[in-house]
Amino acid sequence: MGQQYLPQNNSLYVEDGFWKMGTREPTYIGPATGQDGLTENEAQRIASRKLLPLFYPAMTIAEFVERKFVPEHVALKESSGKEHYRAMLKHVLFPEAVERVFRANPNPPRMKLKANPDWPYLNNVRLCDARPDHIHRLTTAAIERGYSSQTVTHIRNVVSAIFSHARREQYYWGNNPVTTVKPPEITHKESYALTIEQVKEILAITKYPEKQMILLAIYTDMTVSEICGLQWKHINLTEETFNIEGEHIPPMTIAVRKQWHRGKLMDVKKSSIRNLLIPKQLLQILSRYHDHWSFIRPDDYVLASRVGTPINQTNIAARQLKSIARKVGVPSLTWQMFRRTRKALKSEYGLQLQNPR
Predict the structure, then answer these.
(1) Phi, psi at residue 227, to the nearest 5°?
(2) What is the pLDDT of residues 130-183, one digit of tens each?
(3) What is the pTM of this model?
(4) In the chain, what are the domains?
């Protein structure tokens, strides 16, 4: 069972009651029978500790990730998969080392994670020396740091993938050290919606662009990626139907056609194509905003940076929503929460919110 992970011509076998490895000059591993007889897994672990340094004396986890794991495993993933590995590996290896490995990626990271001197990174741990304790210290540190159980599980799974690839490529023998490290229990936070008083309090203290993003999320059923990808040519603030690129946009309508996703403007899925009637309150807000905004050409983004580029939803969530949540005394604020709030307010008030000043 363990032979497929041992170096070629050095398979583990039993001869004369002993576990041995190699053919020309067999290496004694240990007894295979009797009271002190080793199981195949035990013999395999001993063989790994004895012989792996002879084959790969300086192969650390960081070196294996750079030379083998990323080029041969991660590189085969879709862009979303590559970004996932890139983000999770920064909790396994020095973030700077991860960025160096992914230096060929054309999309630079939105937010840089800096190395934590107290973090149990695995950079300098040799593959042959890796033990479950290394992974346990890593997941424990993540839990103590307040990471969600889902994130801790992702970190654990990435480490597991590294060793699975090392076994396939015969750079690591024995059982995957992650298998004995239990994943954390996934806890689901209770979903809740904001009250109308909380919404008004939030709108009173927010500025551009988070205020406009919140308003669009509450007054429409648009996702945050659709909001960030919304262009003026897909909004009709008039009482007349107009034509854009061969398509008719009805009066007072937002045509959901595009989304800003992972740094790119792309079409929404066919099932997400829809025309949204703009409520009267939101129509007034957008009209005033349009009259005083610099970027109002058809291809300009409704919510844009000072140089006209789309708003970064990740930065807004990380930097602004957390601060706003503390000020209004709620546990957290997410874009999904504003969509839930929309449903609750529509059911109770019909979205008759007072226009913010």
Answers:
(1) -65, -45
(2) 999 999 999 999 988 888 888 899 999 999 999 999 888 878 877 899 999 988
(3) 0.52
(4) 3-55 (no CATH), 61-168 (no CATH), 196-349 (1.10.443.10)
